[in-house]
Amino acid sequence: MVLKLYGLAVATCTKRVRVVLEELQVPYELVAIDILKADHKKDDIKEHQPFGQIPWIDDDGFKLFESRAICRYIALKYGGIGKLIPDPADVQKTALFEQAASIETSNFDPPVWGLAHEKVFEPFFGRAPNPQNVEAHEKALEGRLSGYEVLLSKTRYVAGDELTLIDLFHLSYGALLKVQGYDYLESEKYPNVARWWKDVSSRPTWVKVNSVQLEPSA
């Protein structure tokens, strides 16, 4: 049975899972859950994802939700050890991987998600962004990227000198910054961030997955 990914091709967290599937060349079927029609909030969906969110997977009867957890599972099962996640026997690389995972969820995701919410998702549904929230998220992201600049001046990628899942985790929301008109990840102000971002965002797997985009309305 081919792995089934339940989500929406345009959705950020679905893209996060898809790029990992593509990197590891795992056959899968994308089963569309139309969040624009609130299908993810229906009772039968909550049998699979109790919080009414996407994505989730069904891998021959094994069901799992939360995009980062799904990606780790895929990497562990489908040949990602030594490619996208370190060998658990290498304690130091594993520790740096976990450090990078914490950096992405604690320092990168909150401001980029906040900006996407205000400047992409709200306008898409015909609502105006909150200028105070936008300003706060911009300020927070500036501070976080200063830390990334220091980190990436020492290593090629966020967890060391090898690409990992954590670099891929940045892609879906990071790409929306450009949609919003921000050049944070390509700015001369952060040359090491720009070098890293050009590397990870130009991967053919991501270019393929990101070919469908959700853009703010005019």
UniProtKB/TrEMBL annotation:
Pfam families membership: GST_C, GST_N
Transmembrane annotation, as ranges: none
EC id: 2.5.1.18
Record domain GST C-terminal: where: 90-218
Protein origin, superkingdom: Eukaryota
Keyword Phosphoprotein recorded: no
GO cellular component, one term: cytoplasm
GO MF assignments: glutathione binding; glutathione transferase activity
Catalysed conversion reaction: RX + glutathione = an S-substituted glutathione + a halide anion + H(+)
Domain GST N-terminal: start-end pairs: 1-82
InterPro entries documented for this protein: Glutathione-S-Trfase_C-like, Glutathione-S-Trfase_C_sf, Glutathione_S-Trfase, Glutathione_S-Trfase_N, GST_C, Thioredoxin-like_sf
SUPFAM superfamilies (alphabetical): GST C-terminal domain-like, Thioredoxin-like
Keyword Transferase carried by entry: yes
Main enzyme class: transferase
Keywords attached to this entry: Transferase
Any Gene Ontology biological process: glutathione metabolic process
Family from the record: Belongs to the GST superfamily.
The protein's name: glutathione transferase
Organism of origin: Polyporus arcularius HHB13444
Source taxonomy: Eukaryota, Fungi, Dikarya, Basidiomycota, Agaricomycotina
